[in-house]
Amino acid sequence: MRLERVIRMAEEINSGRFPSVEHFCREFEVKERTVHEDIRYLRENMGLKVMFNRFRGGYYNAEPKSGLPEFELTNGEVFALTLGKEMLSQYTGTSFEPILRSAIEKICRRMPERVKVNVDDIKCMVKFNPGAVIPVDRKMFLDLNRACEKNLQVDIVYYGARRGETTERRIDPYRLLENRSTWYLIGYCHLRKDLRMFALHRIKDWNLTDDRFRPPEDLDVDKWIKSAFQLEHGDPEQRVRVRFQPLAARYISERKWHDSQTLEQHKDGGCTLEFSTQNLEEVKRWVLTYGAEAEVLEPAALRDMVRQELQEAAARYNCRLLA
């Protein structure tokens, strides 16, 4: 964040418009002390001869031909930059592509002349297929990102798919999270009095307020995110054990499914996966994707949930056959 800010400050100082401290405070929403520290950083660390003109009331570069320090990229770094462009432009949806392209172009403009990179000419042999991407309103995304960054409360109108109802809520936003091509907002919900996760595409309306909040000091959002098996929260933490037959075990053994997992290999080629999670409904849906190759051993509640789901599915297929 600071590097981006000082680069933009350097651009304005070099433009000859004599930007003032007050201008930088408004532009970046920071205090005067921060602006003075950034100007000192430009002088001492970036080598710019930044001077203050009392008649113009702003700053200028006494050596306008001197710019920010040059930097070089290795072939690997150029590849990584290109790979990031390919991944992000496909993963976040087409509405974000202009922002991403602008960021890439700004980086390229700051490269020294001997390292010229035309992003459009770089052919990346790696492609990403994110699957069914849910479009996200770009303004909403940027507004919510700003709310998370500035600790601004947000009023939203939200459609909850599980209950099928639309509610008005005030949120203390903490983090934006992407999971399996879907974006979520993590924050404290004043309606439910709890930490919740909101799918951005289900937010029907939003409004950034001027009310600021202070995140709880004992809240570890990253830890909260990782406590889920994949995404969902809400139940007391429980230990889950699932046994997989040899065919499914080949695929299960290839991945790390959860930070808390242990994997036991069996002589017949099968395996037993054990992990802790908060939401059994989410695990039930995951287990069912493996059909007869998976058997829940613990807890009993999850085993009953899977059994009931399979019985209802079998009954529905049997009814079709009899009809």
Strand order of the largest sheet: 6-5-4-3-7
DSSP strand tally: 11
Question: Radius of gyration, rounded?
Answer: 26 Å
Broad CATH class of the largest domain: Mainly Beta
* Domain module tally: 4
Overall pLDDT confidence? 82
Fill in the CATH topology of the largest domain. Answer: SH3 type barrels
What does this structure look like?
This protein has 323 residues and is an alpha+beta fold. The chain has four domains: 2-61, Arc Repressor Mutant, subunit A (Orthogonal Bundle); 75-121, no CATH class; 138-226, SH3 type barrels; 238-320. It is built from ten helices and eleven strands. It has a five-stranded antiparallel sheet with strand order 6-5-4-3-7, with helices on one face. The protein has a four-stranded antiparallel sheet with strand order 9-10-8-11. Helix 9 (280-288) packs across helix 10 (300-322). The longest helix is centred in the last third of the chain and has 23 residues, at 300-322. It is elongated, with a radius of gyration of 26 Å. The model is unreliable at 113-120 (pLDDT under 50).
List strands and helices in order, with pairings:
Blueprint: H1 2-14, H2 21-28, H3 32-44, E1 50-53, E2 58-61, H4 75-91, H5 97-109, H6 138-150, E3 152-160, E4 165-179, E5 182-189, E6 194-199, E7 203-212, H7 221-226, E8 238-244, H8 246-252, E9 262-265, E10 271-277, H9 280-288, E11 294-298, H10 300-322
Antiparallel strand pairs: 1-2, 3-4, 3-7, 4-5, 5-6, 8-10, 8-11, 9-10
Helix pairs in contact: 1-3, 2-3, 4-5, 9-10
